[in-house]
Specification:
Length: 112
């Protein structure tokens, strides 16, 4: 599970260093834009990681973009104490936040 945090952590750290450099160069607007992009992209990275690691098995799932689907966002918030944490996978009625892709693959093979 620790490996799942390495890439996003490095992305945020590097982005923060670059944003700090932009502030010192007198470009606070560019720094704010960079940090905004990081905040918007990091949650999607987890969803993308799951989709890539599942491979063709990902086609068996119903994917919901909670930033475009208010009902999906409400379901995720209800499952995560008000947080919009992605990916949230619902298996047999129970939510699982950022599950291991191998575990999801096993659940898919059991359902067939």
């Amino acid at each position: 599970m620790t490996r799942a945090w390495i890439l996003p952590t490095l992305l945020v750290l590097c982005g923060s260093v670059v944003a700090t450099g932009l502030v010192f160069r007198g470009k606070p607007g560019a720094a704010a834009a960079l940090l905004l992009v990081l905040v918007l992209c990091v949650p999607r990275q987890y969803r993308l990681r799951l989709r890539i690691r599942l491979g063709r098995s990902a086609r068996q799932l119903h994917w919901v973009d909670i930033w475009r689907d208010p009902a999906g966002a409400a379901a995720v918030r209800a499952a995560n104490d008000g947080n919009e944490t992605v990916p949230t996978v619902v298996v047999a009625g129970g939510p699982h936040v950022n599950p291991d892709p191998e575990w999801v693959r096993q659940q898919l093979s059991r359902s067939m």
